[in-house]
Specification:
alpha/beta; globular; Rossmann fold; 9 helices; 4-stranded parallel β-sheet; 3-stranded parallel β-sheet; 7 strands; about 240 residues; single chain
Length: about 240
């Protein structure tokens, strides 16, 4: 079994889910008392969030690259960056193979036979090119909410979900945003922030949802077991 390097803390609320899911997946695959070989480096999200707001992406990338190097020293065979937004700096992580969250998600969308997909996430993820272009490179047509909806989706993530607050009224907001995306022709919706799955499930959507945390973590476990390749590489 390969050793999974979990680069988390952004936020730890979702990193907990990564740890749980990779271990559940390994137990599901192997049975008995099996669990995942993994190591985790958890950053201080307050420091990363400050760099995000200030637009200091190069510095943020440097810090995550250093964390990835620590994972390599701890024995990790590949890196799972446990956040959608910080894939903006994924190219700076070169010390180990990276299982890109956008590739894992796009593969699931294509496997479902969909091409026009809605995207929810932080404002950085919804508005900047790094994530939408990655999805588009797989042949997907990506729709994002309008300005007001994007602002509210982002606010709920940073003011509530990353600090463990899950509110029914916020769930209703997301349901309405998802419905508006579906009305515009979205065949499915990507839950493109690792915390959104704490709030929204398939039951809240009229179209298929693609939970990026679960998709990413399960693929990581399968790759560690030699059952799946890292998308875009020949690594088994």
């Amino acid at each position: 079994m390969k050793v999974i390097g979990l680069l988390g803390g952004m936020s730890w609320e979702s990193s907990v889910e990564y740890y749980r899911i990779v271990n559940e997946r390994v137990r599901e695959r192997l049975g008995g008392l099996h669990s995942a070989h993994c190591v985790m480096y958890s950053v201080d999200f307050a420091e990363i969030e400050r760099l995000q707001v200030n637009g200091e992406w190069d510095e943020a990338g440097t810090r995550l690259a250093e964390a990835a190097a620590a994972l390599a020293m701890a024995g990790a065979d590949f890196v799972v960056l446990c956040t959608n937004t910080m894939h903006k700096v994924a190219d700076q992580i070169t010390v180990l193979p990276l299982l890109h969250l956008g590739d894992a998600t796009a593969a699931a969308v294509k496997d479902a036979g969909l091409t026009r997909i809605g995207l929810l996430g932080t404002a950085f993820t919804m508005e900047q090119d790094f994530y939408r272009d990655r999805l588009a490179s797989h042949g997907l047509d990506v729709l994002v909410p309008d300005d007001d909806d994007r602002a509210e989706v982002h606010r709920i993530i940073y003011d509530e979900l990353v600090v463990g607050v899950v509110r029914d009224d916020s769930r209703d907001v997301y349901r309405k945003v998802i419905q508006r995306l579906a009305d515009r022709g979205a065949e499915g919706v990507i839950l493109g922030c690792t915390e959104i799955e704490l709030l929204v499930t398939q039951a809240d959507s009229p179209v298929p949802v693609f939970p990026t945390t679960r998709l990413h973590a399960e693929l990581a476990a399968d790759h560690a077991l030699g059952l799946a390749s890292i998308p875009g590489t020949s690594q088994g």
